[in-house]
């Protein structure tokens, strides 16, 4: 699966300066794995003829006497583990213009790239480099890559894909050029997890080489590109629009509830183990949360406000306010209205509850994704009809976050409507 790229903004392919011809003459030939999901998009060059700080990396540059170093900053929209990737190649030239050394970036390090002769394979004046699948570190010898790091690379491209979300540890983000919310990070991780792949370690030259431009042009392009990529995440990445949560025997243990004398309002009750931590974790992941519960408002304010959970909910659909109880569609409609969601979002909302007759039946009839919490034994776990059969089930609230993540990862373009 190729990771998505927004249509605009595109690199300024006509950007060039007086060093363009020199940079074009020595630009590296980048060989890509046949399954690579995010090929390089642009190369930003800088030519340095005296010792100086690299304009696009953390390293110091020291050209040969009378010579130069051409630095190529290689832009990929995606690393398989984070959104944003800037790699580097340094080509050292002597006073006569001969290549004396080639270096490349490798997981934050700067390493010499050669095939044992002091230089990598060369195509005329151009070094031939092998781009590590998914992670894009630069190698000079393919067999060394597959032998030394093949298993680790496969792990990063497979089970460890999407580990980091949107990359913020760079000068652009640290300078405020772009930012990311918790939801942005979650959707970026989803995109990369879906793009997880098995490297073929069969490399080929791409049909189209990345655009070549001065570093100043690429540096102006990257923030625009990142903003476009982040803005496109909700449209391009199938995801959950919301998580609806019941309360009694879903978050609070009903067997421990104490009511005001002569009232249905609960004033005390124990939380179910792991329930509040799960809600907090869902909030940290950027999920929109709605309380969808039967009872008087005072009950849920008493149970959730002191625990700091009430304000983590984006809206509260409470039967005492709505005038109807689950499985009535009015309850779910109230929650969707509170979130500003249209009916097309129903297939991307999870209803989490403990009551087959109310929570699960209501969710299934309304077109939501139903998740049964089977922690309490106070009510039946046996559906009375097919419409009460939950789509998903957990027995403990410490499984809630992982189950929501699995449900979200399983969404497809078709399910996303």
From TrEMBL:
Family annotation (Gene3D superfamilies): HAD superfamily/HAD-like (3.40.50.1000)
GO molecular function term, any single one: metal ion binding
Top-level taxon of the source organism: Bacteria
Keyword Transmembrane helix: no
Keywords: Hydrolase, Magnesium, Metal-binding
InterPro entries: HAD-like_hydrolase, HAD-like_sf, HAD_sf
PANTHER family: GLYCERALDEHYDE 3-PHOSPHATE PHOSPHATASE (PTHR46470:SF2), N-ACYLNEURAMINATE-9-PHOSPHATASE (PTHR46470)
Name of this protein: HAD family hydrolase
């Amino acid at each position: 699966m190729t990771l998505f790229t927004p249509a605009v903004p595109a690199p300024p392919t006509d950007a060039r300066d007086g060093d363009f011809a020199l940079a074009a003459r020595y630009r590296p030939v980048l060989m890509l794995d046949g399954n690579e999901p995010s090929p390089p998009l642009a190369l930003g060059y800088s030519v340095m003829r005296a010792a100086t700080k690299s304009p696009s990396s953390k390293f110091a540059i020291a050209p040969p006497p009378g010579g130069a170093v051409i630095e190529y900053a290689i832009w990929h929209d995606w690393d398989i583990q984070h959104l944003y990737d800037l790699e580097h190649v340094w080509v050292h030239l002597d006073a006569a213009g001969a290549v004396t050394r080639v270096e490349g970036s490798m997981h934050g390090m700067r390493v010499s790239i050669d095939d044992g002769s002091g230089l990598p394979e060369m195509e005329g004046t151009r070094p031939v480099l092998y781009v590590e699948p998914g992670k894009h570190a630069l190698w000079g010898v393919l067999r060394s890559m597959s032998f030394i790091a093949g298993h680790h690379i496969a792990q990063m491209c497979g089970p460890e894909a999407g580990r980091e979300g949107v990359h913020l540890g760079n000068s652009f983000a640290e300078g405020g050029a772009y930012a990311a919310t918790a939801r942005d990070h979650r959707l970026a991780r989803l995109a990369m997890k879906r793009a997880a792949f098995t490297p073929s370690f069969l490399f080929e030259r791409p049909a189209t080489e990345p655009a070549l431009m001065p570093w100043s042009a690429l540096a102006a392009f990257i923030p625009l590109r990142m903003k476009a990529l982040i803005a496109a995440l909700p449209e391009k990445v199938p995801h959950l629009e919301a998580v609806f949560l019941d309360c009694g025997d879903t978050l609070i243990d009903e067997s421990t509830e104490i009511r005001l004398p002569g009232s249905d309002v609960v004033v005390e009750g124990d939380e179910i183990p792991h329930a509040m931590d799960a809600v907090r974790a869902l909030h940290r992941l950027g999920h929109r949360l709605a309380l969808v519960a039967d009872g008087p408002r005072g009950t849920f304010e008493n149970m959730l406000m002191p625990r700091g959970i009430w304000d983590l909910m984006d809206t509260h659909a409470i039967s005492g306010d709505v005038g109807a109880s689950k499985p009535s569609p009015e309850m779910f409609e109230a929650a969707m209205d509170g979130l500003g969601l249209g009916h097309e979002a129903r297939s991307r909302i999870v209803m989490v509850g403990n009551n087959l007759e109310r929570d699960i039946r209501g969710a299934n009839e309304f077109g939501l994704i139903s998740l049964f919490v089977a922690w309490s034994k106070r009510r039946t776990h046996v559906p009375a009809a097919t419409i009460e059969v939950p789509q998903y089930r957990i027995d403990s609230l410490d499984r809630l976050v992982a189950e929501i993540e699995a449900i979200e990862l399983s969404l497809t373009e078709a399910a996303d409507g």
